[in-house]
Amino acid sequence: MALEDLADYGFSDDGPWVVRPKDLIWERGLGHIRNRARDSVPQLLNPHRLPPLGRLLAVSGRVGRTLAIWALLERRQEQSPRRRALAKRLRVDFARLGPTYIKVGQIISSGEGLFPEELVTEFKLLRDRVPAESFDHVRKVVEAELGLRLEEVFLHFDRTPLAAASIAQVHAARLQTGEDVVVKVQRPRVSELVRDDIRAMAWLAPKLIGRIPIAALANPPALVELFAETIVEELDFRLEAQNMLDVAKVLARTGQTAIIIPRPHPKLVTRRVLVMERLDGYAWDDVESMNNAGIDTAAVLHSGLVGFMEGAMVHGVFHGDLHGGNLMVRPDGRTVLLDFGITGRMNAKERMAFLFLLMGSTTGDVRSQLRALRDLGAFPPDTNIEEVFIDLGLDRPMVDPTTLSADALLTELRELTKKLMGYGARIPKVLMLLVKNLMFLDGSIATLAPDLDIIGELELVHTEIAARHGEQLASEMGIDMRDAVFDADAMKMSLGVDPSIESLTYRDIQDRRDTIRRNLESTRTRPSLRRNKSPKK
After folding, report:
1. pTM, whole model, 2 decimals?
2. Residues 6+ apart with CB under 8 A from 104
3. Please, which residues have CB within 8 angstroms of residue 142's CB and are 6 or more apart in sequence?
């Protein structure tokens, strides 16, 4: 029965219902709803309006107390145990502060390589270990949204959720018509709380400019804007259901059969409730079970890389929040994508910029990469690319960061940050989602294929996509990817690795990162000269 929709969508082969556009009653008027959600962001970000004072005081009091204790008692002892303790206290604070800060923590948890390791590890617990709402609350939301008693819709509804996260929690259930489903239910008052928090953040962010060293380059107001743009659409599950269909369409159009999407129900989707097909599988990091089932985990990783890159490159649509909690692997080796609240969408200009960014990275054309970053919004439109190229020292051979002393490495990082700030560099939403996904896939190599030759895998992905979509991309770019030579040496040099090295596995990359981290650790734990200086006689 389900074969009818497989020509248009990347779904499972034997779904519980067929998705036909004419039957999707919840999809009517969604274009207007999506635009209205986006248009609400500037109002939420107006820094001249007074924030909700009660919420601001609650957040400042809880997080401020934790940071004050660290600054007064522990800052001079930044060994790993101390930082782990701070990360744990912050995680507890964020969980108690509710949906907005849980979501912030989830974003941090998927930023391996971008945020401190202790913070990433601790905040991963915010993905699905969040206190659940009572079943009475769940029942009230479901019945209010569907306009029917729970028992009129569901033959069975598990009182204990499968998982509870920031915006919602999910329950296993069975419809009166017999289909096994998953029901995503929004937390009560979450929309109001999120909007209050964004107003408070927007009021506070300008006051943090230049005051927090790690936030200097990030630009706190720009980060709040980025967060607001991302989360407002998550508050309407009808938009998420449409995101599911749009990504499923991309999978079908690109011929990607190794990744599938659950079917949203044609009728049981509202602003706060989303009923979808139930699909089961192994956890993304359960390598032992996958190996026992005969699943090639390296092939799973490869299909993930290709699927993500194809969606972004060819159609400008991609899942925007890849992490272990949003992925499962079926016994047949196919990957299931879950949770489409955050979905990346690039307009024509952004997609072309992304294509040239990738082309520049695989061929070693640094100027092309800088121009692409500018077109993606990372630099102001009038930025002189040649000036940036020279000023950042990109006209000189790359230096292996593992060969630098701790002081030299810190000096390089400070100078780079200062220069980028001078050019008005920022991280626009689509670039943040792209980078975050690539960082997740990079980290997945350690789990699924630690001995994989990374350079060889990137060349394979480049070649495969060029062969499948080269004609279309050539007509759009004016450059045929099939004729573009993958420059492995340039890729190695961009990582600060000697081109003479034949292969580069994830273990090699991790060893290099550990060396750099140890060098930086030595500057944090090194006693200051002032404290060691002998008192004057």
Report:
1. 0.85
2. 94, 227
3. 150, 153, 183, 185, 273
